[in-house]
Amino acid sequence: MLPYDSLIVVDKENQLPIYKQITNRLIGLIQKGLIPPGTFFPGTRQMAELITVNRKTIINAYEELLTEDWIESIDRKGYRVTPELPVIKPRSFQPPSHFSSTGYVSSEGLILQCPPQPEHRDTKSSDIVVNDGFPDPELAPFKEISKIYRDKGISSRIKQLMCLRDQGGLPLLKDAAALFLNETRGLNIKKDDIVITRGAQMAIYITATVLLSKGDHVVVTEPNYVFANDIMENAGAYITKIGIDEEGPDMDQLDQILKKSPIRMLYIVPHHHHPTTITMSAARRQKLLKLIEQYGFYVIEDDYDYDFYYKNSPILPLASAPHHGKIIYIGSFTKLLAPSIRIGYLIAAPDIVKKAIALKRLIDLRGDTFIEYMLAQMIINGDMARHINKSNKLYSHRCDFICNLLTQKLSHAIEFTKPLGGMAVWLKFKSRFPINRILNDASHAGLCMIGMPFRRPGDPNDNGIRFGFASLSEEEMTKAVDILVKITS
């Protein structure tokens, strides 16, 4: 569901009646394409709770929309945007494009820049393992998966589909994914705009290989998701880095770079940045959109865990705003399910999608038909939405628990900002506790920390590491923090 509480803000000082403000705002969202034709609105009671107004106000707003034929009432289902409405705003992923590019793969082999981890001794079953921020395997919907697998009718259909050549993913999943992403992110896309991949990592690789040539310039943040850096450099690109602070990537630095020389691409993680977990402010997002329009560079928007937010509704992706086909939106269902269920996607302009499908066939001829079919069914029958709600409640509780624990026990050694969502906390150790020493000492004390560390003296994020909490129980989190307290005392 779209974050209506952040999309619809009423002004009680305005002389215009509140129901009319809501009506006008909903019409505007429909006209912009953020609420596509055929979308069901929340019920009157739920919408009233979301935007904290009286239910009668919502009823009046819906009746106004009914009168003007913007929505229709469906018996036993509720209100939906009239399907026959004309497409008032063209999709951002359908630009007039002059794209032409030949991908480049380094003949000198892979260029890997992942920072070395201290050598750990062999882990024991009693050790606590803190990862980079993975979902809890205990929550994986294996019951729903096995139910689909045991259905003989579905099983025979999957066997037929397994023999078909991949066209960028199973059509059923592409349809379901488009519906899911439109409802939750306001993207206004169709199945032909999507390529299903084996995780977001493959999506980043395919996009970079399709769009970059040797010698192209790419801008990333410092620190950044290191495997994305590796992909860009392996494609032959030169990397320039910009800083990141509490509001997200530094757009003034990017502006200065653009004034000096053109760039081909920006790689960015606006929502729960990897590794620092910072969410990019609305003001900086607006400035980035203006820079895209002004300079015409491509942007990979990596939105790997958009669905995990705890206190407030998430800001809609950059890709939900007009961008003339310059944003390639990348995400993952893996974070929603389990680390080993590798399903990601990229959404892009038609020419990029076409080239991406052709490249994908070279490395993944037929895709994972069963998993894709299973995921499509979970989206269609509502299991996915229920699973997300259940996971969000648990992860939100675990986020509160670990942050309270860190504040109470480890404030002498670390600084951190409680994340708005996601599966990890960015711990910045004070200078007298070098992160490499912390990792080694923790390993010998029974704590294996495999989240991404970052060392860059002088950088605001120096001496930090990702502490993944989502897959840990309260007991495990307590033991992990107790070990850190012991080695820093």
- By secondary-structure content and strand pairing, the structural class works out as alpha/beta
Largest sheet: 7 strands, mixed
Number of helical elements: 16
Point out poorly predicted stretches.
Answer: 96-121
Provide the residue-averaged pLDDT.
87
> Strand order, biggest sheet?
4-12-11-10-9-5-6
Shape: globular
- Indicate the percent of residues in helices: 40-55%
Your description of this structure?
The two termini are 46 Å apart. The protein has 489 residues and is of the alpha/beta class. α5 crosses α13, α8 (199-211) runs parallel beside α9 and α8 (199-211) packs across α12 (350-363). It has a seven-stranded mixed β-sheet with strand order 4-12-11-10-9-5-6, sandwiched between helices. It is built from 16 helices and 17 strands. The longest helix is centred in the last third of the chain and has 27 residues, at 383-409. It has helices at residues 4-7, 18-32, 44-50, 55-67, 142-150, 152-161, 171-185, 199-211, 226-234, 251-260, 282-295, 350-363, 369-380, 383-409, 435-444, 474-488; strands spanning 71-74, 78-81, 128-130, 194-197, 217-221, 238-242, 244-245, 248-249, 265-268, 298-302, 327-332, 344-347, 414-415, 424-429, 447-449, 453-454, 464-468.
Secondary structure topology:
Layout: H1 4-7, H2 18-32, H3 44-50, H4 55-67, E1 71-74, E2 78-81, E3 128-130, H5 142-150, H6 152-161, H7 171-185, E4 194-197, H8 199-211, E5 217-221, H9 226-234, E6 238-242, E7 244-245, E8 248-249, H10 251-260, E9 265-268, H11 282-295, E10 298-302, E11 327-332, E12 344-347, H12 350-363, H13 369-380, H14 383-409, E13 414-415, E14 424-429, H15 435-444, E15 447-449, E16 453-454, E17 464-468, H16 474-488
Parallel strand pairs: 3-15, 5-6, 5-9, 9-10, 10-11
Antiparallel strand pairs: 1-2, 4-12, 7-8, 11-12, 13-14, 14-17, 16-17
